Amino acid sequence: MFENPWSLAQIAGYFAFVLGVVCFLQSNDRRFKQTMLAQALSYAIHFALLGAITSMASALIALLRTWLSMYFNSLRLALVIVAINLALGPWLVQVWTDWLPLVATCVGTLALFLFQGIAMRLVLLIAATLWLINTILIGSIGGTALEILIISANLTTIWRLWRARVAERATLAPAEPPPAGS
Question: Is residue 35 part of a domain?
């Protein structure tokens, strides 16, 4: 499954790994998406070198949808990208597990177009889990490590954003009145 850890394909996966970690540590949504562009391109190259054509196509669609989501926030556009992604399925899928990256890209598309902040990252956790299963099955060392760390970094960022939201609400909350009878 995980053969030759120093092949060009695996080295490309390690590069995608580094970009993915940097991406999911971003708390600013714009920087998050900018870094995701580079990560998706490096992932596509990695998958092409592994011969995982469905994964490569999904990564390229992820690159396109991430770029579009930086400029548009449209349910219609998200659904068009999802439809294109699913329409590729019959031509690309050779075994049922080839659907994993296609579905992961669909989930990620909906996350990037329809959500922000914590909600976006929670939906992206679902996509990352599907990608994790895919990378294990196709033998991607960097991809497997990447998805594990994306899930971890994403959870950390969700925690940081949640704590910031709680702290902000605490500073905006009105002071409590003194207890009765004092």
Answer: yes
In this prediction the pTM is: 0.83
24, 40 Cβ separation under 8 angstroms: no
Mean pLDDT computed over 150-173: 90
- CB neighbour class for 17 (10 Å; exposed up to 12, middle 13-18, buried from 19): buried
Residue 175 confidence class, pLDDT cut points 50, 70, 90 = low
Pair 105, 62: CB distance under 8 Å: yes
Residue 167 CB contacts under 8 Å (≥ 6 apart), including other chains: none
Contact 132, 144 (CB under 8 A): yes
Which domain does 90 fall in, by range? 8-167
Summarised one tens digit per residue, pLDDT across range 2-51 is 678 999 999 999 999 999 888 877 888 899 899 999 999 999 999 999 99
User: What is the C-alpha separation between 155 and 157, in angstroms, rounded?
Assistant: 5
Counted domains in the chain: 1
Asked if residues 118 and 105 have their Cβ atoms less than 8 Å apart, the reply is: no
Q: Is residue 175 part of a domain?
A: no
Q: Give DSSP secondary structure letters for 55-116.
A: HHHHHHHHHHHHHHHTT---HHHHHHHHHHHHHHHHHH-SSGGGHHHHHHHHHHHHHHHH--
